[in-house]
Amino acid sequence: MNRNFGFVRVAAAVPRMQLADCYANAEVIKQQIDEAVEEGVQVICFPELTVTGYTCADLFFLQQLQQNAAEALEDICNYTRQKPIIVIIGAPLRWDNNLYNCAYVMTDGDVVGIVPKTNLPNTAEFYEKRWFTPGRTNITTVELWNGEVPFGTDILFMTRDFCFAVELCEDLWSPLPPSTQLAIQGAEIIFNLSSSNCLTGKHNFRQQMITQQSARVHCGYVYTSSGVGESTTDVVFSGSTYIAENGKMLTIGERFRRESAMDIQEIDIERLRTSRQRNTNFTADQQGHYRKIYVAPIDNEQFIGPIHRHFRKNPFLPQPQDREEYCETALQIQTNALARRWEHTHAQTLVLGISGGLDSTLALLVCVLTADMLGYNRKQILAVTMPGFGTSDRTYRNAIALMELLSVSIHEIPIRDAVLQHFQDIQHNPENHDIVYENAQARERTQILMDLANKYNGLVIGTGDMSELALGWATYNGDQMSMYGVNAGIPKTLVRYLVEYEAQNYYSDEVREILMDIIDTPVSPELLPTDQQGQIAQKTEDKVGPYELHDFFLYYTLRYGFSKDKIQYLAEIVFEDVYEPEVIQKWLNIFYHRFFCQQYKRSCMPDGPKVVEVSLSPRGDLRMPSDVNPL
Questions:
Q1: Number of other residues whose CB lies within 10 A of the CB of residue 364
Q2: Of 353, 403, 399, 397, nearest to 378 (Cα)?
Q3: CA 114 → CA 128, 136, 143, 232, 571, distances in Å?
Q4: In angstroms, rounded to a whole number, what is the distance separating the alpha carbons of residues 306 and 169?
Q5: In whole angstroms, what separates CA 173 from the centre of its chain?
Q6: Bridge-partner residues for 106, per DSSP?
Q7: Is 163 an annotated catalytic residue?
Q8: What is the pLDDT of residues 60-109, one digit of tens each?
């Protein structure tokens, strides 16, 4: 499975068919099979009753049509010999004087299983019960040209790398879709062969159903429906295709295409398995006995051409259309969390250090929003700027101006003399700009904040973000420590995004100008002296790497537990035009080293609200030993 990093390439095909002309349809199907093989597709799915057409109506009773369908199926099946693909085709099956609407699963010249439709529609447009028998039957095998074949709705198709199952059209619309139990029993991808007609509003509703079903049972869902060539006597078929995965729609095919079409996508089996493993209730409702049919298609060595899936560079950020709701929710989580802690502790003040950087700016904005929400005076926020050896004029001016404009209480306490005295006490040469030089400043600042909190009955608000916690980019018992960490659940890319959102939507032009300059300021702890021009010399991303990369690494490590190789593979796709592969590998190695070696800082991190899908809390999402070697 490692060769494709858990991705299974699937295709939803819609052939341009000729109604009741099984042989012509077989030729089109074979052409699409060849196209899929060229694209490295592992499973291709065709619509319901593909071989005959769905709208044959009473023609289904004709023995000639049934015979033609059987011969066309055999021809298609033989055509799959020596082809590295699994084919799922819809066609009727006559057995024991009953006619079934079925999905035939075939590979390498054999039909390996047949799944009949369980729920037959009984509507004004479609009255399948006139022609077909429901799939609920005690029949377990049928005899075909290639011998005895498993038959039934209780079949799981097992390959070396994944498990899949089949349902047909109306099955999804039923109160208890067969795919629910099939997924609980182990199916990771559900293929739906459909002939659902098109109506105004139906497209969106059908999309919602597929998306929700894939989320409910943590599966990939591949849906394809009849298109051009079906009868338009009373209804029209749009050739709709959808490919979804675990609540996310990956592909929606163009509707009303006039020629044969095929939509290709990759289902991430590793992602699905991680979701199922974390949902310990997933298999609790297993009912009945399901057969496992082992399918052994000829192997593809690897995917051909680029991967079809789209991966976002910033997985912690919303889609543009969701920006307002996402940001408002994040800020509401932060402010309501802080409000609860403020009220519970009966603190008179909030105390936090303001550096003029992104993290402390977001924390200050959250404190201001919380005070306003509770009806408290903003002067109860004690904002402390503590200039040190590396403080630049730019960050200092921004910090002072922002505090003044937000009308909070301002405390300016330079730390240079105190730190120099400390160096003298511990006999450290201040010209030696090592880790002692840096951390002494961070701990001095934390001591000041803690003591001010004692003096003014306050609560020290931590400003460090999730990305810094992941990398251990914090001084132990320095900026790592606080009484409540409002940013602990916010990754760095989202910190920047939220500050920008607030700048554009909450404040005056004066405040907005300062916030935008803070956003443009290089990320830095400002613990080393500035350069000769007074500019920031110590830039965090030069040392530990770009935060957009680290947040990408963090998301796929925590949310899905992907391997290092797979994260490298995805990052090379996403950041193809930004970073060379060796650069990505360099920063990924640093991420892994720091993430595993710095857990001891997270094991005793303060309380703070979870905001995005994952968190680093040792009491919640990440219960990890502090002395484990990097994997």
A1: 24
A2: 403
A3: 19, 13, 11, 29, 40
A4: 31
A5: 26
A6: 87, 111
A7: no
A8: 999 999 999 999 999 999 999 999 999 999 999 999 889 999 999 999 99
For residues 366 and 354, what is the distance between their CA atoms, to the nearest angstrom? 13
Each residue of 396-409: pLDDT tens digit?
999 999 999 999 99
| Set 45, 56, 77, 117: catalytic member | 117
Among candidate residues 516, 487, 518, 521, the one with its CA nearest the CA of residue 503? 516
Angle at 250 between CA 245 and CA 253, to 5 degrees: 125
Tell me if residue 259 is catalytic: no
Candidate list 22, 169, 219, 367, residue with the active-site label: 169
Assess contact for 550 and 471: CB atoms under 8 A.
yes
Catalytic, 169? Answer: yes
Give, in order, the Cα–Cα distances in Å from 63 to each of 54, 67, 212, 361. Answer: 16, 6, 40, 77
Positions of the chain with pLDDT under 70 = 1-3, 123-126, 300-304, 526-527, 534, 537
Tell me the three state secondary structure of residue 242. strand
Locus of tokens 């070697």: 629
CA 417 to mean position of chain CA atoms: 49
Helix axes 492-505, 547-558, angle to 10 degrees: 110
Tokens of 599: 């857990």
**What distance, in Å, lies between the first and last C-alpha atoms of the chain?**
19
- Could you tell me what percentage of the chain is helix, strand and coil, using 3-state DSSP and rounding each to the nearest 5? 40, 20, 40
> What is the Cα–Cα distance from 367 to 381, expressed in whole angstroms?
7
**Token pair 């999905």 is at which residue?**
103
Q: 517: part of which helix (H) or strand (E)?
A: helix 509-520
Strand ranges (E), 121-260: 141-144, 147-150, 155-158, 163-168, 189-194, 220-225, 241-245, 248-252
Catalytic residue of the set 22, 45, 48, 367: 48
